[in-house]
Design goal:
This protein has 379 residues and is mainly alpha-helical. The chain has 9 helices and 3 strands. α3 (131-149) packs across α4.
């Protein structure tokens, strides 16, 4: 008995604290949860005590009323490019109307609603040649689209690309994309596309507009045909009226350009028969050449003279250009225009020469005479 009492006295300090401690922990967790609930209740009551007086004040509901989206409480400020003096290069692009939705298309992806059933349409372009030919053709076509129609709508850019490819298929023009784009660039006044002579190439292109033009060029070289311009080989901006415009067949106006095709035999579908064979030259303007032969080549490119050469059976058609040379192998001699007496009385050819053009500003000295007729070669 003495031994049992001693054992109990020695065991109680070890067993009871553990047993008591276990019960304390379980009871403590319940106490913490009750305390947290009381705190949340007190917080909600305090928030209600602060918010309710604000809602109870007269006119408080008006301050919390959801606004009406149809009422304009303040004037809407214009965007930066809509404010005077805040324009930036390419801002005119934001004023353009979107292209009409394509409802029904033919095999070339052209909207049938835009087509004149009687108007001839160019054939899809078929790429040939080496990888270098493809790269140079892509570069040249992108350049003419960018520098001639960077801020035009998509339709305007496709129309410019179609004009280049129409010329390539015509016997009066070079047989390469780069040859067509930079034809006449060896002379200050002979450029078929203005950007090749007026110093525009000195401006570095903007990436967004360049990528946009490159996408149009790729589609055109892949066979996409823009039928609304038909077989157009010429265009000009709506701000000018070149002498040849009344003599050619007006096709349509797209964006800021008016498009024309040849009348008569020069504008028939059978004249656009030549296939692309490659042989692209370097994608750059030609070296300057002010010789008499170069001047004759420029004169042979006069659209009125070309049209007359195809119409007159006694006059040989202009020589076909080769892919490896941009020079004309033979030039047909065309008579001078026969003007009516009333036209000759008023000045004849001088009526159709650009005179008194406004002076430009900020032009580099080497391009100061661009666009002016040089009467004597070498001056």
């Amino acid at each position: 008995m003495t031994d049992f009492a001693a054992f109990t006295a020695s065991a109680e300090p070890e067993l009871r604290p553990r047993d008591f401690g276990g019960r304390f922990v379980r009871g403590g967790q319940r106490h913490v949860r009750r305390r947290m609930r009381r705190r949340w209740a007190l917080g909600a009551s305090a928030l209600a005590a602060v918010a309710l007086p604000a809602f109870a004040e007269p006119g408080s509901w008006e301050r919390f009323t959801i606004g009406n989206a149809q009422t304009a409480d303040q004037a809407v400020l214009p965007m930066p490019f809509e404010q005077r003096g805040e324009s930036f290069p390419g801002s005119a692009f934001y004023y353009l109307q979107p292209d009409p939705a394509v409802l029904t298309t033919n095999g070339n992806g052209v909207d049938q609603n835009l087509l004149d059933p009687a108007a001839p349409v160019g054939r899809p372009f078929r790429m040939a040649g080496s990888t270098l030919d493809r790269a140079r053709a892509q570069q040249c076509l992108t350049m003419v689209i960018y520098y001639e129609a960077a801020t035009e709508p998509h339709a305007g850019q496709r129309a410019v690309a179609q004009v280049v490819l129409n010329r390539l298929a015509h016997p009066a023009y070079p047989k390469t994309v780069c040859g067509v784009v930079f034809e006449g660039s060896e002379r200050p006044t002979g450029c078929q596309f203005t950007f090749a002579c007026d110093g525009a190439l000195a401006r570095a292109p903007q990436r967004f507009f360049w990528d946009r033009a490159a996408a149009v060029a790729r589609a055109a070289l892949a066979g996409e045909v823009y039928a609304p311009v038909g077989l157009a080989t010429h265009y000009h901006t709506i701000q000018v009226n070149p002498y040849w415009a009344p003599s050619l067949h007006f096709v349509t106006t797209i964006g800021a350009h008016r498009f024309y095709r040849f009348e008569g035999g020069a504008g028939t579908p059978t004249s656009f028969r030549l296939a692309y064979l490659g042989g692209e030259p370097i994608a750059a303007p030609h070296p300057r050449d002010l010789s008499a032969a170069s001047a004759m080549a420029d004169a042979a490119l006069d659209p009125v003279a070309l049209q007359r050469a195809f119409a007159a059976p006694e006059v040989a058609a202009p020589a076909v250009r080769t892919a490896t040379s941009d020079s004309v192998q033979a030039h047909a001699t065309t008579p001078s225009p026969r003007y009516a007496d009333a036209v000759r009385t008023r000045g004849g050819d001088t009526l159709y020469q650009a005179q008194g053009l406004p002076e430009a500003q900020g032009i580099r000295p080497e391009y100061a005479n661009s666009g002016k007729w040089i009467a004597t070669p070498g001056t």
